[in-house]
Amino acid sequence: MYSNILTQKILTSFKKEIELPDTMNYSFDLKIPKERIAILIGKGGETKQELEDLTETKINVDSKEADVRITGEDSVKIYALKEVVRAIGRGFNPEISRLLLKQDYVLELINLLDYVKNKGHFERVKGRVIGAGGKSRDTIEKLTNTFISVYGKTISIIGEAEDVIICKKAVESLLLGSPHANVYKWLEKNRKMSKEKQAIDW
Questions:
Q1: Which of 102, 146, 150, 154 has its CA 20 to 30 A from that of 129?
Q2: CB under 8 Å to 23, separation ≥6 — which residues?
């Protein structure tokens, strides 16, 4: 017992001598579009405060420069919150973005510039994914159990990892010119196979 007390005193003295911190703080910096800063903060700062409470972190926002710094003691929670902030920055509302705090949810970004050779075709290509009145986007979301945001020069997807992979393939097929009917047919077939597999596993 005496030995344990002595060891503890030595460690305490050593810690004070080299000034080791009681906790390790991590931080991550990122930038989002200025017009999305208000969405991140929320009315009266409610959204920002809720995200801080959920992840035990601190969010510092420079509204003028649209810079965001996340700090905290848990690097995993900081990474998850970083993905939430990125999602808000890419057009998702905070409620959908918060899904990324769940373990199996991921965010995938597709750069439209990789699929558009002529700037004049930019809106047309985006329109293929959105569809008339948002019909195409809604259909893909329903068939893949995901959420899609077409914002600026990116198309972003939120969902469980396996679903996001399927959704991304469908979106890329549309961007490359595949007919909508063919893409929907493939998604329906894929969903049917997935349900059959789940039934077998069950």
A1: 102
A2: 73
* Side-chain-facing half-sphere of 55: CA atoms under 13 Å: 32
Q: What sign does the CA torsion over 154, 157, 161, 165 have?
A: negative
Does residue 5 fall inside a structural domain? no
Domain carrying residue 52:
20-103
Angle at 190 between CA 186 and CA 192, to 5 degrees: 120
pLDDT band at residue 195 using 50, 70 and 90 as cut-offs? confident
Which domain CATH number covers 49? Answer: 3.30.1370.10
> For the chain, how many residues are written?
202
Tens digit of pLDDT for each residue in 85-107? 999 999 999 999 999 999 999 99
For 50, the token pair is: 């809720």
pLDDT tens digits for range 50-77? 999 999 999 999 999 999 999 999 999 9
- 143-169 exposure pattern, b = at least 16 Cβ within 10 A, e = fewer: bbebbbbbeeeebbbbbbeebbbbbbe
- The number of distinct structural domains making up the chain is 2
Instruction: Look up the pTM and report it.
Output: 0.84
Q: Tokens standing for 28? A: 């991550």
Q: What is the DSSP letter of 162?
A: H
In the prediction, which pLDDT does 6 show? 45
